[in-house]
Amino acid sequence: MAKVKAIRGMNDILPSSTPIWQYLERQVSTVLSSYGYNEIRMPIVEQTELFKRSIGEVTDIVEKEMYTFNDRNDESLTLRPEGTAGCVRAGEEHGLLFNQTQRFWYQGPMFRYEKPQKGRYRQFHQIGVETFGMASAEIDAELIVLSARLWKKLGILDAVTLQLNSLGSTESRQVYKADLTAFLEARFDQLDEDSQRRLATNPLRILDSKDTNTQNLLADAPVLSDYLDEDSKSHFAHLTELLDASGIRYEVNPRLVRGLDYYCKTVFEWVTDKLGAQGTVCAGGRYDGLVKQLGGKPTPAVGFAMGVERLILLLETLNAIPEEERSSFDLYLAADDKAAQQAVFALAETLRDELPSLRIRCHFAGLKNINNKARQSGAALIVLIKQTEQGPVASLWNEDALVQSDIALSALPEMINSAWQ
Ligand code: HAM
């Protein structure tokens, strides 16, 4: 019978990779807690309505990428394609947003029916950050500075660049949208097929088109920054001032519009040229209108989400993962004859009592080639027990050589401890 396989674009994260995931997650949570952010955990499934009303009916995500199904009660549900909508829903439902300031973060799988390729999957993972109740540009800057700190900690800062833009207010964007549409309608025949379709539904997304002809055409198109309202202009100026003062480099990209409808004012993306087409590793912006749009009181908000798979690909490409983070244990404990094997079990427990941070893996399989197996385990330390007439004794190796042989088991914890330093 044919074997059942995983769904295309939905990957197993195997034990050989999980140490790297955990390393990344640890770095992120350390940075986020140093800025006073709290973790929130939302359900993976929400009412379909939530995503339609927030991300926007005529976005790619809602039009063609959502995993939507009716449950047994005939209610339309959707596997979350992103975390912002659910976070706003949860915050509002539990009264955490109105008249308060909040800094939340979340992590977990998101689902989009996209064409799988390197860096693009149907189940992928985001670590997202959402803040509420702060209207001024300081919090936009904090999010960017915080992410830059994380890149630095991960050793990837030099491989990413920050693209920045302001989308202005909904009103100023409407005026721009009308002018852009008029400009493009007059050149409809020269547009690529996708852009022709978008012209009627979401003309701003045409600015994102990868088609060279369309891009050339856009060179003479009206520019969004010329349409910004005064408030958005000064917000953006203050943000760039703060970034300049923090030594954060950025490129203002007037064509950066993002694929979700809820943004206003600041939008940004951290991009890399090291991963091919899927180069955006982190993206976000301000969404002051969303809480109200979902039924709450007007509440300013800004956030971002990073793509965990893409960050890991980048870490791998740059060889930026510390060697010790790749292994899942430090010490391999084995016996080289049957008589000594019983000592292994008890000794491992004693060592775990005395050296609780040491990660110990016991060898419980056959004894053939035990020396080689221990070496190939990748452990930084190896302990081999053998039976003598005086009872079991141990020998200790580090990665390079024998540290000592014939160690009494009672002396082993101290010896391991000093070899481990
Ligand atoms: P997004 O740009 O749709 O924004 O996704 C954020 C990041 O998730 C992307 O930059 C990318 O790294 C990763 N990502 C997206 N789709 C995929 C995929 N199919 N495979 C792998 N990685 C992917 C949002 O989701 C917004 N909720 C971000 C936000 C939070 N804005 C404000 N707060």
UniProtKB/TrEMBL annotation:
It comes from the Bacteria. Residues 1-356 form the Aminoacyl-transfer RNA synthetases class-II family profile domain. Its EC number is 6.1.1.21. It catalyses: tRNA(His) + L-histidine + ATP = L-histidyl-tRNA(His) + AMP + diphosphate + H(+). Its main location: cytoplasm. Keywords: Aminoacyl-tRNA synthetase, ATP-binding, Cytoplasm, Ligase, Nucleotide-binding, Protein biosynthesis. InterPro entries: aa-tRNA-synth_II, aa-tRNA-synth_II/BPL/LPL, Anticodon-bd_dom_sf, His-tRNA-ligase, HisRS-like_core, HisRS/HisZ. Belongs to the class-II aminoacyl-tRNA synthetase family. This is Histidine--tRNA ligase. It comes from Neptunomonas phycophila.
